[in-house]
Amino acid sequence: MTLTRLRKALGIAALAGAALGTAAPASAERPDDGLVFTYQEALAGKKVAFVPITMGFDLTQGWMAAVQRDADRLGYELTIRDPNWNVDAGAQAIEQLINEKPDLLIVHNNDMQAYTKLIRRAMSAGINVIQMNLKTPVNSDAFVGGDWYDVGVKTAQEAARFCGEGTSGKIAVVQGPVTAPPNQLGVAGVEDALAEYPEIQIVSNQAADWDASKARSIASTIIKQHGDLCAFIGLWDNMDVGIAAAIREAGLTDQIKLVSTGGGNQEFGCTNLENGSFASYVKVDTRDQAHQLAETIQILLQTRPEPGSQPFGLYTENKILTPDNIGPGSCWTLDGIRAGD
Length: 341
What we know:
By secondary structure, this protein is α/β, with parallel strands linked by helices. The chain has helices at about 5-20, 35-45, 60-75, 85-100, 115-125, 150-160, 180-195, 210-225, 235-250, 265-275, 285-305, 335-340; strands at about 45-50, 75-80, 105, 130, 140-145, 170-175, 200-205, 230-235, 255-260, 280-285, 310-315, 320.
């Protein structure tokens, strides 16, 4: 049919419709591109559960802001069982969820071993499992989070940058619980990196268990013992604000540099760079992790692999922030992630 004939035919059809009192529908049913309906059906009504270390800090709040936004948009159900730092309560929550059989379980491991058997049990029960940010030696369906060895390497390199010629070369490390993945892997990275700098000496390496008050006390004692200390390496910004307080109290902010790491929250990351509390900051971006987690949920709910059969990882790019290179978008806020930032 030629274009002219087609136009005439369409015109006749329109006139016929008008004569019969019919009209075009106000909105047409969306076309199927071959995948979109399958995508929607794979997500709608599914059950996703998360067992964090706690929902009481910025990292877990940032991740769940993005996941909840996706859950609302795509129609799956998000359940959070918060053990509030209690490993036994976390284990109990995971056991209950295994019995409830969600479609997907997200586990935020408190240490390297506590939940390994439960992760295996969940997968044996047919549940796909994501490990979030803190990984056990067991592979599950996915890991989304930090490369903690590389974080340790980068913090050490930054400390060495501050503590070269003309300084004492003395560095102190303040870590969290010794069984936590960021410590076991991060401290190994620190020690391996500093082996390349024979002029640098680690004069103290103590655990503050992620507690800012404990970190402050430890740092104060170290400063008294080593008045010529050049730098602290801290392994989490929420804890490291205690180290910064001890340095201020000693009146040594010009001498002692604090290299910290964290998820890039505006309050704990960029603000502390701007006010001089942190000299350098290795950002393990929670905002990026939040989006990666939400996307990983979508992928696993669509593909539904046999649990544990095709493990994959999404490791966060570590970025070094300093007072000289931060800008308006360097850090994130919870409201921003909720809005899709």
